[in-house]
Amino acid sequence: MTEATTPLLQVNSIEVIYNHVILVLKGVSFSVPEGGVVALLGGNGAGKTTTLRAVSNLLRGERGEVTKGTIALRDERIEALTPAELVLRGVIQVMEGRHCFGHLSIEENLLTGAYTRRDGKAAIAETLAKVYDYFPRLKTRRKSQAAYTSGGEQQMCAIGRALMANPRMVLLDEPSMGLAPQIVDEVFGIVRRLNQQEGVTFLLAEQNTNMALRYADFGYILENGRVVMEGAAKDLAINEDVKEFYLGLSTVGRKSFRDIKHYRRRKRWLS
Amino acid sequence: MGFFLETLIGGLMAGMLYSLVALGFVLIFKASGVFNFAQGAMVLFAALAMARFSTWIPQWLGLESAALANVLAFLAAGAVMFLVAWLVERLVLRHLVNQEGATLLMATLGIAYILEGIGGTLFGSDIYKIDVGMPKEPVMILEHVFDGGLLINKEDFVAASIAALLVALLALFFQKTTTGRALRAVADDHQAAQSIGIPLHRIWFIVWCVAGVVALVAGVIWGSKLGVQFSLSTVALRGLPVVILGGLTSIPGAIIGGLIIGVGEKLSEVYLGPLIGGGIEIWFAYQLALVFLLLRPQGLFGEKIIDRV
Ligand SMILES: Nc1ncnc2c1ncn2[C@@H]1O[C@H](COP(=O)(O)OP(=O)(O)OP(=O)(O)O)[C@@H](O)[C@H]1O
Ligand SMILES: [Mg+2]
Predict the structure, then answer these.
(1) Residue in A61, A82, A115 closest to B182 by CB
(2) B303 within a domain of the structure (yes/no)
């Protein structure tokens, strides 16, 4: 990516406060290029989900609010839009924990994803066929009530449902949560194909650093509501600190990033 | 045998109307998690609007045909109910997103009082009549099958048919249309629905409109039977035991619960009445509901929280 092209999504030092008092994001900045796969990494409570909600504007329903900073989609400010308006602009979030509609069948779940579309039944049917192509498991379970399908199938259903809106960008929150390793691989493999073949941009929030870095091209590491490190995924994957603190490759055991690197991080925030 | 069947059919027909009222509760509860205490007030308000418009409209337009006047009055009352739905969403629900169930319940209690107040002011508080030409005389059917045939109340029969038709239309609407599917999605998980771009405000407006139409039909039916007066708002109380029995989240539950209570009332009145004194009809439903609250609080068909990890 060259400096000249504007990124698809540009987030500039945002601050997020829940319930008017709980300051959760303390100046987070990052950008996502058109057609990229960008990962937001970090442990429990680092602020990954909050960051995604700030972009998709699902914060308001959680009594959260962006109090500082800017969020721009192709140079258009989007902080004040409703989630529905963002879906119309091609940005959709797949929530952490999948959130399928339990009493609806898999196919009905997928069809609800097309709610905002106005391009007609035929176009929607075409997208549905495409989603079934990417997720053949969903096709075999299309008549089942979503609540009774497996965790992997529900994750696929949640992603497929988002794809039904014909998005340009998917905010994918913790897709690996609670899934067996080979299912995680399958899901990430499909994400990669969607990215390469359909040109869908992904912003991925993951605790599973190892997996995420294998499939993303760029990563940001969040800790305590701040970006503490960023870089190309392949560089992060071989970075000693990342290895030690997030990939569990250390012999010393897990420590917080802040223990040793405090001085360096502080320098970064100030710069 | 003939007498038993007569009682049974009478019970089924009365039950269909209970189902209709119960449906009003279920629709709103499913889509927004709000137990709508104002359902009764909506029935009264809609019936008042219908009764007044059906006398005003012929005066305003100089109409001769009573049928046309009734149709226009029905449409006007429907429009009024849509306006109510819009105002409720705009002025109340929108500001209470994500609040506790108790807060929302209190809010609908407030809506009930406001509707009763405004209804009295706008439409007056006399007793009015709704005459939509319901047949009043009973008929005999199946005379060659039973000795003496079955005596059926035609008015109840028409009312039950209308209620059944409305219920069937609603079921189709929920199962087959895009909007109906979105309504069910919101009922299941409103956050997820929001995340895929379903605007909750619009959905809430739509369910309150639907509940308004249900209230209007119930109001017209009960109003033409009993006259439109303040006590009509307590008709909705009849829906309460039905939703307890059928489950607050189940549309089939509302229908079957209504039928069970209708039949139970009539049969117990006729067959138990002589043994333990009459008036069973009045408390039967509540007793049955009480038993259910003790034994099966989610109701016959209440949705299980499907929980799997
Ligand atoms: N609705 C809310 N109200 C108040 N505080 C919240 C809310 N949601 C999240 N938080 C707080 O914000 C902080 C960041 O949470 P967030 O969910 O963004 O973290 P995360 O990085 O997604 O963590 P995880 O990996 O566990 O999902 C946490 O301390 C959390 O307690
Ligand atoms: Mg999270």
Answers:
(1) A115
(2) no
Chain segment A224-248, per-residue pLDDT in tens = 999 999 999 999 988 887 777 776 6
Q: Give the pairing of strands A37-41 and A201-206.
A: parallel
Residue nearest atom 22 in ligand 1 by C-alpha distance: A49
Nearest CA in chain A to B179: A115
Domain of residue B105, CATH code: 1.10.3470
Domain that holds residue B244: 2-295
Q: From CA B309, how far away is CA B307, in angstroms rounded?
A: 7
Could you report the per-residue pLDDT of B112-154, keeping only the tens digit for each?
999 999 988 888 878 888 888 777 777 777 766 666 667 778 8
Closest listed residue to residue A265, CA positions, set A245, A249, A251, A250 = A245
Nearest C-alpha in B relative to A167: B196
Number of domains in chain B: 1
The span from the CA of A45 to the CA of A39, in Å, is: 16
Mean pLDDT of chain B: 85
- What does the pLDDT average to over A118-147? 94
Q: Do B197 and A88 touch (CB under 8 A)?
A: yes
Cβ neighbours around A249 below 10 Å, total: 11
CA distance A151 to B41: 45
- From A14, A15, A18, give the residue whose CB has the most ligand 1 atoms within 8 Å, as the site to mutate: A18
What is the ipTM metric for this complex? 0.85
Residue A78 CA to its chain's centroid (Å): 17
Q: Quick check: is B304 in a domain?
A: no
Residues of chain A contacting B303 with CB distance shorter than 8 Å? 103
Q: Which among B214, B166, B213, B206 has a CA at the least distance from the CA of B182?
A: B206
Give the C-alpha separation, B207 to A27, whole Å: 41
A126 backbone dihedrals φ, ψ, rounded to 5°: -65, -45
Return the structure tokens found at B66: 């009573």
B151 three-class SS: strand
Does B79 reside within a domain?
Answer: yes
Establish, for the pair of chains A and B, how many residue pairs have beta carbons separated by less than 8 Å. Answer: 84
**Contact state of B98 with A161 under an 8 Å Cβ cutoff:** no
Does pLDDT of A9 surpass 70? yes
The phi-psi region of residue A25 (left if phi > 0; otherwise alpha if psi is between -120 and 50; otherwise beta) is: beta
Distance CA A164, CA B125 (A): 53
Write out pLDDT tens, residues B266-298.
888 888 877 877 777 778 888 888 888 888 777
Rounded (5°) CA angle B178-B181-B186: 125
